[in-house]
Structure formats: C-alpha cells, structure tokens
Amino acid sequence: MTRQRIAVITGGASGIGRACATRFAEEGCAVAILDTDKHKGCETAQHIARSGAVARYYPCDVADRVQMQQVAATLEREMGPADILVTSAALIPNTESILDMDMASHDRMWQVNYHGTLHACIDFGRQMRERRQGSIVTLGSINSLLPLPLPAYNPGKAAIQRLTQLLAVELGHHGIRVNSVAPTYVLTEGLQEKIDAGHRDLGKILAVHALDTLPGTEDVAQAVAFLCSEAASKITGVLLPVDSGWGAAVSYKTYAGGVPWDD
Ligand SMILES: NC(=O)c1ccc[n+]([C@@H]2O[C@H](COP(=O)([O-])OP(=O)(O)OC[C@H]3O[C@@H](n4cnc5c(N)ncnc54)[C@H](O)[C@@H]3O)[C@@H](O)[C@H]2O)c1
After folding, report:
1. Is 195's C-beta closer than 6 angstroms to any atom of ligand 1?
2. Phi/psi class of residue 169: alpha, beta or left (left: φ > 0; alpha: ψ in -120 to 50)?
3. In the annotation, is 153 catalytic?
4. Which pTM was predicted?
5. What is the residue with the minimal CA distance to atom 30 of ligand 1?
6. Which of 25, 83, 106, 121 is a Cys-bridge partner for 53, taking CB atoms 3.0 to 4.6 Å apart?
7. Would you give per-residue pLDDT tens digits along the chain (263 residues)?
C-alpha cells in the first residue's frame, strides 16, 4: 500500500496558504499547517478535516530557527516525513521610503519572509533528502521580478527566487524538485483590507494586467499543485508567474507613446 503523502504549508492558516492546504487535502494528502495565527490555523485545519482529510495545525513562528527545527521533528514523528513543502508565510507591507523606514520592521520582514523560507526548506528538505523524494514550492511574487517600492519585501522576494534556484540544484541531486510561483495581486482578505485603507489602488492594479480579472487564491494553489505533480516531474528551479498577464502588460500599458487600442 502506498503511504499517504504529507503536505506541509507554512502560512497555511489564511489566504494562498489556506488554499494550498485545501487543494492538497483534496488531492488526498495529509496536511500540516504551520502558522503563528492559532485561531485561524485551528479553524482552517478543522474546516479541511470536516471533508474527511487529515489536517493538523502546528503553532510555529517560521522566523524562529529553533522553533522550526522542533516543529519539523514533532511533525515527522506524528505525521511522517514531508513529501511536499509550500512556504507561504510572510508579512506584506505598504509603500515605504528606504531612507525613512523603520529598521526593526525591515529586519523582522527579512526574518519572516526570507529566513522563514530558508528555515522551512532546510528542515523539511532534510526529511526529503533522507527518502530521496519531495517537492518544494516557495511563494515568490511579481516582486521577485521587478522593483516595487517595498524596500524589505521586494528584495526579499528576489532573494527567495535565487534561493529557490540554489536549492533546486543542490536538492536535484537527491531527487527533490524546488520551484517558485510568482502571483500578481491576489484578492485575499489582506489585500482587500489594504485597498479599503487606501494602501492599494484597485484601478491602478487592473490597468497593468492583460486579463480583466486577478487570480484568486485557488488559481495560485492550482499552479502550486501542478508544480508538485508528476506532470511537472522534469520542472525544477523555475519561477512560474500566476499573474493575469502582468509581466506582459506592465511595460506595454504604461508606454509613453500610448496604447493603440486604448481610448
Ligand atoms: N496576496 C497577494 O496579493 C500576494 C501576491 C504575491 C505574492 N504573495 C505571497 O503569497 C504568500 C501568502 O500571502 P497571502 O496574501 O496569502 O497572505 P496572508 O496574510 O493571507 O497569509 C499569510 C499567513 O502567514 C502567516 N504568518 C505571518 N507571519 C508568520 C510567521 N512569522 N510564522 C508563521 N506564519 C506566519 C499569517 O498568520 C498568515 O496566516 C506570501 O508569501 C506573499 O508574499 C501574496
């Protein structure tokens, strides 16, 4: 009998991470949600478990190296070694000036977004290396690709892309694939709150995409699931945009000479 696959999702309590946890449960995996938000983490695990899947919440601050090691060891004992890792835990900031930013917040963002990704990849990557199989997907962003005025988040996402490539080469040797997805703006609860508070302009967002609609969390989860599937067995080290055509449209639609069909 084949063993049930274990999918570990950091930041799985809400947004894109929650959609990934739900998606992998639908595919028959047992899912482990690692998150600092106990209330949402338990609620998500209970919600998934109601569909008959195995889902557990593990309290974990991904920035804390020791905590991550302990959670990874406990999880392996209780559920088994990880087959899939998705690193979705992150802090998402608002526009800031580099010269005036708060350095404590800057450093915390790097600790959570970059170091948190690294910590999870090390501890669950080691479990995968033991068994010479596994798939890791890191959460990048359109911020991995071009400069945007988020001085801790933006270079952090570029660094995650490079880390993904390094891991892909190092772990490829052990039969493990490592890829990243780069979503554009995804209308999560968090993004909606930022729009409502005036920190993001929905009109400006929609004006720089090829498609008229933005991806939902399930669209990102579907791309993540594809990268972890047999269909992607020869794909590693890539950054897959889930961007409603942002990459193609952002320079085109802001061209100084105008856009031919725009009235
Ligand atoms: N929403 C977007 O528009 C968007 C676009 C591109 C990329 N992303 C990326 O997708 C990922 C998920 O974003 P989201 O929009 O779903 O965010 P979200 O805020 O809905 O979810 C993030 C989760 O991470 C958890 N978290 C935060 N700090 C943590 C820590 N120290 N340890 C463990 N868990 C922690 C939060 O509790 C939350 O459950 C992030 O990496 C983000 O950068 C989001």
Report:
1. no
2. alpha
3. yes
4. 0.98
5. 61
6. 25
7. 788 999 999 999 999 999 999 999 999 999 999 999 999 999 999 999 999 999 999 999 999 999 999 999 999 999 999 999 999 999 999 999 999 999 999 999 999 999 999 999 999 999 999 999 999 999 999 999 999 999 999 999 999 999 999 999 999 999 999 999 999 999 999 999 999 999 999 999 999 999 999 999 999 999 999 999 999 999 999 999 999 999 999 999 999 999 998 65
Span 6-252: which CATH code?
Answer: 3.40.50.720
State the Cα–Cα distance between residues 218 and 226, nearest whole angstrom: 12
C-alpha 261 to ligand 1 mean position (Å): 37
Domain spans, the chain: 6-252
Q: Is the CB of 193 under 6 A from ligand 1?
A: no
* DSSP helix/strand/coil, 94: coil
Our separate counts of H helices and E strands in the chain read: 10, 7
Is the Cβ atom of 144 under 6 angstroms away from ligand 1? no
Both structure tokens of 102 = 């708060």
Residue burial 136-153, b: 16+ Cβ < 10 Å; e: rest: bbbbbbbbbbeeeebbbb
> Would you say 168 and 179 are in contact if contact means Cβ atoms under 8 Å apart?
yes
